[in-house]
Amino acid sequence: MYDGSRVTDAVEYWRRRGELKGALTVVRGRKPERFRWRRAVGAVSQSVGALSGRDRMRVEEPVREIVLDLGDDQLRREVVIDARRWGVDLDRGEVLPRRTLAELQRIAFLSGTDLSRVSKHVRLPDDREAPIDTAGVIVVGRALADQYKVRAQRLLLQVPDEDGPEPLRVHHRIMVERAAQDRADSQRWFAFARALLETR
């Protein structure tokens, strides 16, 4: 794969060949940035998530080293969260804030979110002082926020324009109200995920 290719295309080329070392070499050799490079690392993490044992360790640890060496704190956090979507844990407490169950419950209360929605997807400890899987919880929180946002948009697309010739009927007004509720829920879940990243 030639040097002038996009980092995402180059990584995909090596992934298709099943040669993740080549993909790692590409990622190491390109300048880290928040768009294509981040997606390229996410693609490598996706492949790592499908591996196990020594094969996984051979790729996961070099990826972790690349992430820890990043000078951009925000990019480092986002790459760690991207990897967690594929079941890859690149953080050993060096990147994301360490949170306990008690702190998580407080954040959920302040943001007005239902923590039982999170526990369906991420195992939470029984001990309130025990640490949580911060990256995993953020992934779930963002996914729920996106889900509500998309649902609100789909509902509004089915409602006629208020200034149009067709009057709003009762079911249209119900859909508008439901969309507003979904939009508010989306904002609450985004606030929940954002609060988990805030340093104390």
Automatic annotation (TrEMBL):
Designated name of the protein: Uncharacterized protein
Organism: Sandaracinus amylolyticus
Source lineage: Bacteria, Pseudomonadati, Myxococcota, Polyangia, Polyangiales
